[in-house]
Amino acid sequence: MWNRTRKNFAAVVLIVIAPFLAGAESRPPASSDHHLELDVRKTNILQVATTADEALLLAQGGAGQPEVALIGLALPPKFNARERTPILFTSVTGDPYQSNIKEMEVYRKQAIARGWIVVTGQPHPWPDRSRDTVTGRQAAARAAFRTLGEIIPANRNWPTAFAGFSG
């Protein structure tokens, strides 16, 4: 069973990061006239519009509102966008009581104390287990990384790790 779980997790990770490794284009960074205040003391929850590709994947995954994704983002206390900062992406399977954003709190405190950015993405509304799919999680992850790139354009070459659990 663990072997199958590792293979499934590896497949999800490859699906999510493959476009970034291949140099896929994303939307240009958010314009400088749109000022976004992020609080380094808590998890910032951003509601973002999805791209056409992300919306299509979310719709295939059964998301309730494929045109919207929620992004959870936590920054370390002394974050400087000009300094290379490791990124931790977290993800879990559908659970009506614990969404990706709620579960990222398991990692947030320790990660930001060590200088990491913590980010996650999720369909909106959060699906129950029967509507949770790999394509829905892929789309939400793509939206999270795209949004992070719009907020912090330099992050594209920063080290990234993945964490999460299922069941």
Describe the protein in words:
This protein is α/β, with parallel strands linked by helices. Helices cover 36% and strands 19% of the residues. It has helices at 2-21, 52-60, 100-103, 105-113, 134-151, and strands at residues 44-49, 68-74, 87-92, 117-123, 160-165. The protein has a five-stranded mixed beta sheet with strand order 1-2-4-3-5, with helices on both faces. α2 runs antiparallel to α5. The longest helix is centred in the N-terminal third of the chain and has 20 residues, at 2-21. It is globular. Mean pLDDT is 77; it is low at 1-34.
Which structural class do the helices and strands define? alpha/beta
What coarse outline follows from CA principal-axis ratios?
globular
Would you list the SSEs in sequence order as H and E? HEHEEHHEHE
The number of helices is 5
The Cα radius of gyration reads 15 Å
Mean pLDDT: 77
Amino-to-carboxy terminus distance: 13 Å
Beta-strand fraction estimate: 15-25%
The description of the largest β-sheet is:
5 strands, mixed
- How much helical structure, as a percent, in the residues? 25-40%
Strand order of the largest sheet: 1-2-4-3-5
Number of strands: 5
Q: Which spans have pLDDT < 50 for at least 5 consecutive residues?
A: 1-34
Briefly characterize the structure:
By secondary structure, the chain is α/β, with parallel strands linked by helices.
